[in-house]
Amino acid sequence: MSTSMGIGVIGLGTMGTIHANNLATSIFGAGLVAVADPDPHRAEQVSLPEGAVHRFSDYRALLDAKGVDAVVVASSSTTHAEILQEVLMRHLPVLCEKPLAPSLQESVGVHEAFHRAGVPLQLGFMRRFDPAYVRAFEAIQAGVIGTVYHYSGISRDQFAPPLAVAQHSGGFFADTGVHEFDLARWLMGQEIVEVFVRGGVFVSDAYRDLGDVDQAHVSFGMDAGGLGLIELTRNAMYGYDIRTEILGSRGAIRIGVQPETGMTLLTETGVTGDHVLSYRDRFREAYREELQAFVRCLHQGLPVLVNSLDGIRTVAVAEAAKQSLAEGRSVEVTYDA
Ligand code: ISE
Q1: Given this model, what pLDDT does residue 37 score?
Q2: What percentage of the chain carries pLDDT values higher than 90?
Q3: Cα–Cα distance for residue pair 189/74, rounded to 1 Å
Q4: Distance from residue 279's CA to the centre of ligand 1 (Å)
C-alpha cells in the first residue's frame, strides 16, 4: 500500500456524500479515488477533484478499479450484506455504515466471514469519535464517576426520514436505536441482555403502513446489572437533539444539547440561541475522525476501533426491541442468528 491510500465510496446518499467530501479534502494518509452510485446525478453533489476520481454506476466496477485500496460502504442498509460479500472476495478493508445489516442473521453471516478472512471491517458508529463522547469515555475509564450503573439517552431527529429511505433502513431500532445501544454498551462497559419497549405512531402516519413507529421508549438491563432508559423520537421539529447521561456511584457525566454556534441573541423581546438541525452538523467532526481513525489503523496494521461484533450486538438488541414492541413484553437479547 502506498503512503496515500486510495479509497472508494459506494453509495452517494447523505452519508456517502459526507465521507466522499471528507476523503477528498481532509483525511491524512488517504484520498478519494472512486465513487459508485446507480444514480449518475448523485456524483455531481460531491465536489470531486478534477480528473482524479473515477465514477461508476456499478459498485463491482469500483471494487475492481486500479488504485482502490479500501472502501466505504454507504449504500442503503438492505444492500450492505450483498455488497460486503463482494468487498470480502477482493480482500478490501471496509468502513461500513450502520447497521451492519438490517437483520441479525445477515449481520452474523457478514461478521463470521470477515472475521474468518481477517479483513478489517469498521462500523460507522461515529458517536464514539465525537470529542464529548471521547471525553466521557475516558473519564469513566479513569473511574471519575465510580462504578457506572445507569444509562439515559435521548435521541431525537428533527424530521422522520422520507419513506423511501426508511423502507430500506431496517426500521427505527436498526436505523436509529443502534447508535444508542452502541453508546450504552461502550460507555457502560456491559452488554444489553434484556429490553422492554413501548412505542407508537404520533406524527408520521405513513409509518404505520410500514409496521414501524415514530416514537419509542426502550428500557433495558445489562449483563453486569446496569440499567438503562432510551427515548427515540423521529419528529422533534425544533432540531436534532442527542443527549446522554451516565450515573455512577461517585457522580454523573452528562452530554447535553449542542448549539450550532456559541451565539446568543439578547434583545428586548427575549434571549435566543441556535441549535443543530441534523446529524450532519452535530457529528461533523466525528464523521471526519472516524474515517481518520480507520485510515490510521490500516496504515499502522492495528485492529479497527469499532468492528463487526459491535455490529451484530447492536442489531441483536434492535431485533429484540422490535419483538418486545410487537409482543408487549420483555425480550431477552440473544446473539445467535
Ligand atoms: C440516521 O441514519 C443516522 O445514522 C443518525 O445518526 C441518526 O440520528 C438518525 O436517527 C438516523 O436516521
Answers
A1: 96
A2: 88
A3: 28
A4: 7
Q: What is the mean pLDDT of the chain?
A: 95
Tell whether the model's pLDDT for residue 336 goes beyond 90. no
Q: Is the CB of 279 under 6 A from ligand 1?
A: yes
CA of 167 from ligand 1 middle (Å) equals 14
Nearest CA to ligand 1 atom 11: 176
CA 291 to chain centre: 13
In ligand 1, the atom with minimum distance to the C-alpha of 234 is 10
Q: Which residues are registered as beta bridge partners of 273?
A: 264
Give the position, in ligand 1's atom list, of the atom nearest the Cα of 127: 6
Mean pLDDT (whole number) for 255-259: 88
By most ligand atoms within 8 Å of CB, the mutation choice from 77, 80, 100, 175 for ligand 1 is 175
With cell 413507529, the residue in question is: 213
